[in-house]
């Protein structure tokens, strides 16, 4: 099924949710057909093999042809599809290579972004939420080797290359987690992290990554479920100060803002699921994610049905640019794919 970007102009709703299994239930098909549901994120539980994935994607496109289909497929610990896909190393492996062979690391980061995106696009998946822009301070259990490096300059160079590769494949990029998740020990999936650093410290050590990457063409950003009390009382994803004053006005970011999962513990500071959605959208998020909680997703959908939703053209930019799309069996014919797989295999533990 070929969804050329030029023919896909529907206004997308602001809710991204998930589904339970390898195929859609009748209820899930009904929910996905809602104009308020603009995105669907896939998890490991939605994948058994490539044939099943193709069937599931076809079901999704039948229920909602223009929906953004997303996955977390950044590499290392966070790669939802394994068998049938290239194993991608943690991004820290590219950072380590950068210390030893700068030019080889930059080229491989670009090729890795291209390969990751190309393999997903082959199955009609629009985006992988990548790359990680967080800095590795050696204290965060949830970031750790997902980060490219502990050095701002290294992160900037490597992520710019990674994004260039994604763009070459036709996939929009999403940087996470603004303004930086690496400086706290707590995992926002299961805790409410507090980062006590000042704005000046954050600017120098974390936000300094985002500015150059935004300027080089970053398409979307996902803020962190972290409270920075010396800057604002609200967690970044619910904060007008972070999303409007800093991200939009100071850093001049014009792309899409995705909330992180509103089902995470770090999001509970904003109240009930409808209150979380209201807070995120009011702060400036273009699309809110509700994952692993079907009741929460239903509550947010019901809330959105009562809310006046303005058309959001920014979301349309996240759909596939499929002018260079290759079918799965065509990838093996590409020398770039073969070469990149070989070089990545050396870095996979």
CATH architecture label:
Alpha-Beta Barrel
Give the overall shape, derived from the CA principal axes. globular
* Gyration radius, in Å: 19 Å
The total of beta strands comes to 10
CATH superfamily: Glycoside hydrolase, family 3, N-terminal domain
Q: Summarize the amount of helix as a percent range.
A: 25-40%
Numbering strands along the chain, what is their spatial order in the largest sheet?
6-3-2-1-10-9-8-7
Characterise the protein shown here.
The chain has a single domain, classed as Glycoside hydrolase, family 3, N-terminal domain (TIM Barrel). Helix content is 39%, strand content 11%. The protein contains eleven helices and ten strands. Strands 6-3-2-1-10-9-8-7 form an eight-stranded parallel β-sheet, with helices on one face. Strands 4-5 form a two-stranded antiparallel sheet. The two termini are 36 Å apart.
Structure described in brief:
With 349 residues, this protein is of the alpha/beta class.
Feature tags:
single chain; 349 residues; alpha/beta; TIM Barrel; eight-stranded parallel β-sheet; two-stranded antiparallel ribbon; 10 strands; globular
Q: Topology, please?
A:
Layout: E1 15-17, H1 26-32, E2 37-42, H2 50-63, E3 68-71, E4 73-75, E5 78-79, H3 91-100, H4 102-121, E6 127-128, H5 152-169, E7 174-178, H6 199-215, E8 220-223, H7 240-250, E9 256-261, H8 273-283, E10 287-289, H9 294-306, H10 328-331, H11 335-345
Helix pairs in contact: 3-4, 4-5, 4-11, 5-6
